[in-house]
From TrEMBL:
InterPro entries the record matches: Alkyl-DHAP_Synthase, FAD-bd_oxidored_4_C, FAD-bd_PCMH, FAD-bd_PCMH-like_sf, FAD-bd_PCMH_sub1, FAD-bd_PCMH_sub2, FAD-linked_Oxase-like_C, Oxid_FAD_bind_N
Name this polypeptide is given: Alkylglycerone-phosphate synthase
Residues reported to bind FAD: 209-215, 291-294, 343-349
Biological process per Gene Ontology, one example term: ether lipid biosynthetic process
Gene giving rise to this polypeptide: agps
UniProt record similarity statement: Belongs to the FAD-binding oxidoreductase/transferase type 4 family.
UniProt site (Important for enzyme activity): R394
Chief subcellular location: other
Species annotation: Betta splendens (Siamese fighting fish)
Substrates-to-products reaction catalysed: a long chain fatty alcohol + a 1-acylglycerone 3-phosphate = a 1-O-alkylglycerone 3-phosphate + a long-chain fatty acid + H(+)
Region (Disordered) location: 25-57, 675-707
């Protein structure tokens, strides 16, 4: 359904109030004039005004609103009601309170999962099953003196000991609690994080940054063999937009903000980032950076690496950030690319400057039915070739099409169900599409109304060349509406012996069909060989398109009745599927990060256990209190070269290069921080022509004598 974004006077008032509140926070000058933007409001009490925290989704005690052993809000779930019909509870989503008549049959027919065979989860967390915290007493004592809030409550700790991998949730449902963090700490701002990291280094404590907890790469798991105290650094209270720059269309935001809050707050000012991963309700900006996330509307807005202008990260060696907020630099490899995807192993991302766009004037959904998956893929390839992909275009295979159909809520109108029947008749009988082969693409167009309508025409014309039939806005919109509730379905499955997971890859266009066919077939074969007694669901969809290839998601699930160690079987099958992906020219991951059990993720975890220090050992980023030294970066370069049969040729430092390194006075005095080149912002007053009262960014670097970290790297 098409929608226009318009605002009445009450909207304007709300926006004005919001802006004033942010501005009021900013007018508090920091005690230390050298502090960067984020420190301006931080009181180091860990407190926020009630008004600002009220508006945020994630409370400190997450388990007050979210499930401790499943996905999402506690009040929202799929259940079978007394009549044995599936329904979705709560009031938060469009599907909430609705009956889904086809779901029960689909579960029975697809998995053999019946109401008689139930495997309910342990309802309440048994705190006595949680091991007592290993507290580092001196660390805790010094932490107290910072007034940063912390907790060693069992629920807080268990909540932060996992992400949403199948094995993590399965264990929790069974009441099995492994190694959990010993302490949870809630910094309010960048300078709180600096203090925590400094204390962790001083007292040999491990830190694991925690954003939204939606990780699907096991990155939040605590290594069971770790004997030191583990502290989960929960960024959820670092959730403010610090400034919006309307001239350059950028916003500077604290890294703990979750996607839904970021978009809502920006929307109130007329802007958006357009970054919408399926987990955006709960995942955080820092998490997106740390995992190199990708959103469904990346065709217009880009992936996180395209959106990021500036990252500020606290490492055990000091703070890393570039000296300016420029759109591009050519002075060496981009340090952002070391940070993005580092999964918390290099440090804690505290603030990020992102590109923003005006909220699109017009949105339109759409869908296309294709006679088969092959033609659907050919169409997506042509759309990518002509570079006319809508904000989102997703192609579901036949199994997912049927699944989507099973999730249709009960229709109240006979007319609607009659129309549905007619459409089906038209497609299958009149057009001759085979219901067991057809597949569907959902579309989302955004932008200026005229352009959207033209764009739509272009995409539907291409689709027609590949046998595609326009299947209406409603089907498209329903597809996107399901995006946020689909994650809740795994919990229902697990209530009835069904376990499942998704994993994704990126693959060149000429390998897409092979990879889809081969991986799905391998899953079926492996399940049979490993003794799975019911046919598995093995399905895929193409979710993102690029010039040179696409991202493909695989979903796989099975009924584990009769298996003694279902998770082991599951992981073996998944491992085989990933091998198949690699053998077919795909990547290990497109955006979920280093997957469970891979050597990469094992290394990440080992490294994380070393107090979030990285491959960049001491001196390679910077010694405490100093900016990075060219010689240590050269050493890093040599280390890389030693492993690669390449002749990289590390340039000599130009004469006087080091004179270009600005060392802030506070750093020279020995504080464990190295900020490079960024001037603290002046507080902003509302002035005519100054962006309609929005918070303004700090002035850019003041002179040409500041060097970015990357210019240091090539020196
Ligand atoms: C249902 C579901 C749907 C998903 N859909 C998508 C999708 O569409 N696109 C996509 O890209 N991913 C998706 N994911 C994966 C996940 O949401 C992303 O990896 C997300 O970016 C993680 O963010 P988070 O804030 O939840 O991070 P967390 O899960 O809290 O942490 C993930 C990793 O990042 C580190 N980290 C977190 N915050 C920081 C920080 N401030 N500084 C340094 N390190 C930090 C952690 O230590 C950990 O290693 C999905 C996951 C689920 C469960």
């Amino acid at each position: 359904m098409a929608s226009n974004s318009s605002g009445g006077s009450s909207d304007r008032q709300r926006i004005a109030k919001q802006r004033l509140r942010i501005i009021a926070g900013h007018l508090q000058r920091p005690a230390d004039d050298d502090s960067a933007v984020g420190a301006a409001e931080c009181t180091a009490q860990g407190s926020k005004t009630d008004a600002s925290s009220e508006e945020r989704t994630v409370p400190r005690r997450r388990h007050e609103i979210m499930k401790w052993n499943g996905w999402g809000y506690s009040d929202s779930k799929f259940v079978y009601n007394k009549k044995g019909q599936a329904e979705f509870t709560g009031k938060r989503y469009r599907l909430s309170g609705m009956i889904i008549p086809g779901l029960k049959d689909w579960m029975e027919n697809t998995f053999g999962a019946t109401l008689q065979h139930k495997t309910p989860a342990t309802p309440i967390l048994n705190s006595s099953a949680v091991q007592a915290p290993t507290l580092n007493e001196v660390f805790v004592e010094e932490l107290k003196s910072t007034h940063i809030p912390f907790s060693h409550d069992a629920e807080d700790r268990v909540f932060r000991a996992h992400g949403h991998c199948l094995h993590e949730i399965f264990a929790l449902r069974e009441g099995k609690i492994g190694r959990v963090p010993d302490l949870v700490v809630w910094p309010s701002c960048h300078s709180d994080v600096e203090k925590i990291v400094e204390l962790a280094c001083k007292h040999n404590v491990c830190l694991i940054p925690y954003g939204g907890g939606t990780s699907v790469s096991s990155a939040l798991e605590c290594p069971p063999e770790e004997t030191r105290s583990i502290v989960s650094l929960d960024t959820s209270q670092m959730n403010r937009i610090l400034w919006i720059d309307e001239k350059n269309l950028t916003a500077h935001v604290e890294a703990g903000i979750v996607g839904q809050d970021l978009e809502r707050l920006l929307n109130e000012s007329g802007y958006c980032t357009g970054h919408e991963p399926d987990s955006m309700e709960f995942s955080s900006l820092g998490g997106w950076v740390a995992t190199r996330a990708s959103g469904m509307k990346k065709n217009i807005y880009g992936n996180i690496e395209d959106l990021v202008i500036h990252i500020k990260m606290v490492t055990p060696q000091g703070v890393i950030e570039k000296s300016c907020q420029c759109p591009r630099m050519s002075t060496g490899p981009d340090v952002h690319h070391f940070i993005m995807g580092s999964e918390g192993t290099l440090g804690v991302v505290t603030e990020v400057t992102l590109k923003i766009r005006p909220v699109p004037e017009y949105q339109k959904y759409g869908s296309v039915v294709f006679p088969n998956f092959e033609q659907g893929v050919a169409c997506l390839r042509e759309v990518a070739k002509q570079r006319c992909a809508p904000a989102s275009i997703r192609l579901m295979d036949n199994e997912q099409f049927k699944f989507g159909h099973a999730l249709k809520p009960q229709v109240s109108s006979i007319f609607t169900s009659f129309l549905d029947g007619l459409k089906k008749l038209y497609i299958t009988k009149f057009k001759g599409f085979d219901p067991n082969r057809l597949c569907v693409a959902t579309l989302l167009f955004e932008g200026d109304r005229e352009k959207v309508l033209q764009h739509e025409k272009q995409v539907y014309t291409i689709a027609a060349k590949f046998g595609g039939l326009a299947a209406g806005e409603d089907n498209g919109q329903r597809g996107y509406m399901l995006t946020f509730v689909i994650a809740y379905l795994r919990d229902l499955g697990m209530d009835y012996y069904v376990i499942g997971e998704s994993f994704e890859t990126s693959v060149p266009w000429d390998r897409v069909l092979d990879i889809c066919r081969n991986v799905k077939a391998r899953i079926v074969r492996e399940c049979k060989e490993k003794g799975v007694q019911f046919p598995p669901l093995s399905t895929c969809r193409v979710t993102q398109t690029y010039d040179a290839g696409a991202c493909v998601y695989f979903y796989f699930a099975f009924n584990y009745r009769g298996l003694s160690d279902p998770i082991h079987v599951y992981e073996e099958v998944e491992h085989a599927a990933r091998e198949e992906i690699l053998a077919n020219g795909g990547s290990l991951s497109h955006h979920h990060g280093a997957p469970t059990g891979s050597r990469l993720s094992q290394r990440a975890r080992r490294v994380q256990a070393r107090c979030s220090i990285s491959w960049w050992t001491a001196g390679e980023v910077a010694a405490p209190g100093l900016v990075p030294q060219p010689h240590s970066l050269r050493r890093f370069g040599r280390r890389l070269r030693a492993k690669a049969p390449l002749r990289l040729g590390w340039p000599r430092p130009p004469a006087g290069a080091e004179a270009g390194v600005r060392t802030p006075s506070r750093v020279r005095s020995g504080a464990p921080v190295c900020t490079m080149g960024q001037e603290p912002p002046a507080p902003v007053a509302q002035s005519e022509g100054a962006g309609d009262g929005l918070l303004q960014p700090p002035a850019g670097p003041s002179s040409g004598n500041t060097h970015s970290l990357m210019s240091l790297i090539v020196c």
